[in-house]
Amino acid sequence: MNPVEIIRKKRNGEELNKIEMQFIILGYTKGKIPDYQFASFLMAVYLKGMSVKETAIFTEVMLYSGEVIDLKKIDGVKIDKHSTGGVGDKTSLILAPIVAAAGVKVPMISGRGLGHTGGTLDKLESIPGFRTDLSLAEYKNVIKKCGAVLIGQTASIAPADKKIYALRDVTATVESIPLITASIMSKKLAEGIDGLILDVKTGNGAFMQSYSDSKKLALSLMNTAKSFDKKVVAFITDMNQPLGKYIGNWFEIYESIKVLQGEWIDDLCELSFTLSGAMIFLGGKAKSIEDGYEKSIELVKNGKAFDKFVEIVKLQKGDTSFIFDTSKYPKSKYSLKIKSNAAGFVNNINTYEIGVAAIELGAGRFTKEDVIDHKAGIIFHKKLQDKIEQDEVLAEIFTDKKNVLKDVESRIKNAISVSNKKGKKEKIIKEVLN
Asked: Which domains does the chain have, with CATH numbers?
């Protein structure tokens, strides 16, 4: 088989079959097809797209390029959640213990920060000692013991994805919906799940900023999950402002602890409990998503969700003393209160810029080599349509890098617009697809 013919066929918008897909993907993964040819193939996919069938085949080939975890010997239904990422998106930290406490297994393979968005692994690793690099035997042991586990992608899971993603990153082909779908689903299906909840963000802080693109991605992910006979529900959710109040790795752990201990934070709780409710429903422990939502609130109120979070941290070697006493955590050398230049109502937040500001403070990476400062971050005090007075505190920033304070202050101030007229409050959950 000739890679040039496969590239030409896709360039002309024709559908590839499984043998052709295996040849080009596995050939590249094994080093038999060079970067320049596979880059051409990726660009052809980016420009011409893929059918639902092709996307499922692409996913299957990437999935079986490595190990698929078998959790059949562990009792219970296994349900995971995938979010396309955003600023302050800490829902995994909240819903995993809630869903496990409800009796549904949660095998979660998570990612690191990507671009302006934070990563669940980086947040978990801000807990001293917490291990996200468990072996597959350890992964199975933790989920068997407590019902939930959160680790990073191992070398044996979807190795084709790791190599292909690195090439997509440098060939301007990241934003292709079929390629995004195959990348996400090959890793999720490798976990050994029975069902999946999808949280696809839309808005100025999302990876997919337009509603139509977000919906296309949600449908593509759903179609692929269904082609593998997995139960699936997708939510399109708002990312036109940070989720919750805290942004940054330890800060997001802190806010998640507060929620699990019963504090109500409107947007964060509504989204987290809806997603956990949907997972509990797919796991057969609730009659509906709404019933699962109520069960989630009850599991927080009775303390079982928080106890489960402590159990997960302990089993993954984290120091639970920091969970019980968050004041023990090291503090940043510098902090600054950012005040509003005008009075009125907050009518726009450039969420992307807030995410970049957090990276500047040390909470994320601009390059692969950057070291994350887990205690750096932002407390964001205002939401869209909130009333604000002149010189009222908008946000507080925390960092060990004194030289970035003024730049970050300017970035955050410029990211927020204040109007004299109050606008309409947007819903956090825009649409449910099932």
From this structure: 3-49 (1.20.970.10), 79-154+179-324 (3.40.1030.10), 331-419 (3.90.1170.30)
